[in-house]
Amino acid sequence: PVLESSLTYDLRPPGLILLEDFVTEQEEESLLNCVDWSHTEHKLGQSLKLRKVKHFGYEFHYDINNVHKDSPLTQNIPEECSILLPRLKERNCNVMSLPPDQLTVNQYQPGQGIPSHVDTHSAFEDPILSLSLGTPVVMEFKYQDGQNVPVYLPQRSLLVMSGESRYLWSHGISPRKTDIVPTPCGTLNSS
Predict the structure, then answer these.
(1) pLDDT band at 42 (very low <50, low <70, confident <90, very high)
(2) Coiled-coil region(s) at which residues (predicted)?
(3) Closest of 128, 64, 143 to residue 96, by C-alpha
(4) pLDDT tens for each residue of 151-162
(5) Distances from the Cα of 158 to the Cαs of 43, 133, 136, 173, in angstroms?
(6) From 52, 59, 122, 165, which residue has the greatest number of CB atoms within 10 Å?
(7) Which DSSP state fits 77?
(8) Side by side, which strands form the sheet with 103-107?
């Protein structure tokens, strides 16, 4: 389709790193299968207005925008995730000084998204990692001056938000079923 927008997808906020093909198709399948969405009891999973969410290590309490550090969950981060930190080092991305102790898994259905936000400073340290599994998606980053930077996140890519991109830019996913992304060879339909 003819694009009437001047949006480009090659700009990035300072401190934002995108590592494409971060996991293999087999690893992606293993990671997707390690989360059991059939249980939605307290501390095992929640259905929020716009998505399903599961927590490991610590539960994020959306009502207070924080975690209770003195009450960890019995469900630790799944063993399938243990490949991620060594992979960061293999890719020369030394952004983590300690292994993560908290994991939030968001499940989005087509047309769902997440409102623009900055992750709570007191609950989450720098950096924030986001692994895109199942499908690609466009995440929009917004700066206080109104600047809007859409970033195309390919399937199986890892997004590292640190520094300015983590603390000064909000990020979110617009609730739409498809994104039309300009490429050098035309356009790409992401859904």
Answers:
(1) very low
(2) none
(3) 128
(4) 999 999 999 999
(5) 26, 9, 11, 16
(6) 165
(7) P
(8) 46-47, 52-56, 103-107
